Amino acid sequence: MTQNILLLPGDGIGPEIMAQAVRVLERLKSDGLDIAWDNALIGGCAVDATGVPFPQETQDKALAADAVLLAAVGGPQYDVLPREQRPERGLLAIRKVMNVFSNLRPALVYPELVEASTLKPEVISGLDIIIVRELVGDIYFGEPRGIEMRDTEFGNERVGYNTMVYSESEIRRIAHSAFKTAQKRAKKLCSVDKMNVLEATQLWRDVVIEVSAEYPDVELSHMLVDNAAMQLVRNPKQFDVMVTGNMFGDILSDAASMLTGSIGMLPSASLDANGKGLYEPIHGSAPDIAGKNLANPLAMILSVAMMLRHSLNQVAAADRVDSAVKQVLAQGYRTGDIMTEGGKKVGTVEMGDAVLAVL
Amino acid sequence: MTQNILLLPGDGIGPEIMAQAVRVLERLKSDGLDIAWDNALIGGCAVDATGVPFPQETQDKALAADAVLLAAVGGPQYDVLPREQRPERGLLAIRKVMNVFSNLRPALVYPELVEASTLKPEVISGLDIIIVRELVGDIYFGEPRGIEMRDTEFGNERVGYNTMVYSESEIRRIAHSAFKTAQKRAKKLCSVDKMNVLEATQLWRDVVIEVSAEYPDVELSHMLVDNAAMQLVRNPKQFDVMVTGNMFGDILSDAASMLTGSIGMLPSASLDANGKGLYEPIHGSAPDIAGKNLANPLAMILSVAMMLRHSLNQVAAADRVDSAVKQVLAQGYRTGDIMTEGGKKVGTVEMGDAVLAVL
Ligand SMILES: CC(C)[C@H](C(=O)O)[C@@H](O)C(=O)O
Ligand SMILES: CC(C)[C@H](C(=O)O)[C@@H](O)C(=O)O
């Protein structure tokens, strides 16, 4: 049966890097993989065309597809729009609609790119962490929220508020996802919370401990979020899999990816309960280099590999793409963001060429 | 008029490092500084003695004092206590009672200790950031909060929730404190929020922009918290002063201090509207090395300097203490945590001796 992929090129460098991912899909298809794809709008380009960042048509197509591949959204021209029209609203909406609660964000250092990091080689060489971030709950979506006039101890004034909230079912399902991820790796899971201050994360810790009974083979530890931020800088290799809520995950996963020094290399997967997913590079839309053939397409191509692995169940094809990326790095091809001494500097398309050549 | 200091040695290594700070105070006093001090209990030692982590007597003394010097609280034996009795409750309570809303946390790299960092020397040498963290508001203290049974989409189950909340007056006063801090330095202020998702931080950004009109000499920028976590790793020297809320500040300031590689060197100040303050090292109570004469007393001694500067208005004495610490580093004295090649390894007391010798 043909598996259907929805492509969302989005804004900035999005279309350019998506074009290279499509070349990879075309090759896999011509080699016999039974896939088909369609395009839709999200983010700023969707606002330009339809007035909203996540049009109904995109929503319908995303729900009908077997997997969704997203490049990047956003740009300075959209920052002046009212909140509901901003590109990132489209991102939050598609996550919620697809119910992709489990966001897997690897922070992986390729041997060839050790020098790209601001951290000392011995601290990050061989680094291989996955952060499992809960993606459809927490203070991102919690109600009540807003800005309103209130009588406070200081008088009548504006007050802004949001609600951090987790139910035990929400915590349980992300915990299962994290334990299962750890089982396939070094079997170490560190759950991050702020239980000494926040009740919502006290429940988080309690439920993670309850779920751990089903995974006796995984070594579970707990860390406070401030300490986790420190430990990522001090000794990131102590971690295998980390699991945390949406807000803490946003911060820690960005810090973790920057440890590698090459965020142009990092893909991500966001999965629902059935393994259907949304795949995207962790980098942004980089409007400053858009349209200049400068962007690194490898995170986008690695997102294709994650999609093949996690949603389409095409492990061999996923391995093939992953190893093609490793080979082009070994051959010395580098876009500007990962340029190292002696590397062959190439643009977006040429990097795509290099991947296609070894595929 | 005699200025009165309340000393809170607390738990773990607290009493040991406080003892060295007291030697510095004694020297300053014998050299003519008109100060006096008293002791009180906070944290685990207070629970042991009185059943609560912040006894009424400590509260009365803290409110009566001109400044409070705190070493550290907490230890594994207290983690089993009910929430209200945990040592960190004492810390949160004293901050709230003293209304020390402005927490100044410097992340400073001493030239002698550049190698202690996990980051490359060129990335952090000369690093000198101050993070201004709001300390008595936000989700730390927001109501409603708790864990309760609710009917959710998943059924009747436990739900944990907290409230992130800021009023414009709370934001305004911390913004003023941050702009004033920046004015005394390189005049660059970066305000950190998550305005693309959280209304509470949209108000934060709005009010910071309003306040900025009064500080035309300070260059204001804004950064999303996830990007700030990245930028601290990528290029921390781009920052001068950063200002953010209590929760984000907890995470970012710990990450920033770990960039220096020597958290045993970092003091902090928490100030109220009148400059009265609570001073403490940013490191914890380190129960594993307590009582072994291994702890680094320099962050505690530098907290004395901050206290002299910010609350007691004794700038000359503050400079004298700061420069004594610089001298002992230049002389090669090192506790274990900051040991470098060729350094003279010393214990807590010997490091105190060295400081006293140059004072
Ligand atoms: C754009 C923004 C809403 C989003 C988030 O905060 O989740 C982004 O930072 C991310 O991590 O994917
Ligand atoms: C101990 C804890 C409550 C405290 C905080 O979160 O504020 C600590 O992490 C700090 O930063 O001083």
Automatic annotation (TrEMBL), chains A, B:
The UniProt site entry described as Important for catalysis is assigned to Y140, K194
Instruction: Write the Enzyme Commission number(s) for this entry.
Output: 1.1.1.85
Compartmental location? Cytoplasm
Per UniProt, Mg(2+) binds at D226, D250, D254
Tell me the ranges covered by the Isopropylmalate dehydrogenase-like domain, including all copies: 4-355
Q: What is the annotated role of this protein in its UniProt record?
A: Catalyzes the oxidation of 3-carboxy-2-hydroxy-4-methylpentanoate (3-isopropylmalate) to 3-carboxy-4-methyl-2-oxopentanoate. The product decarboxylates to 4-methyl-2 oxopentanoate.
Question: Which protein are we looking at?
Answer: 3-isopropylmalate dehydrogenase
What organism is this sequence from?
A: Ephemeroptericola cinctiostellae
Task: Name the gene for this chain.
Answer: leuB
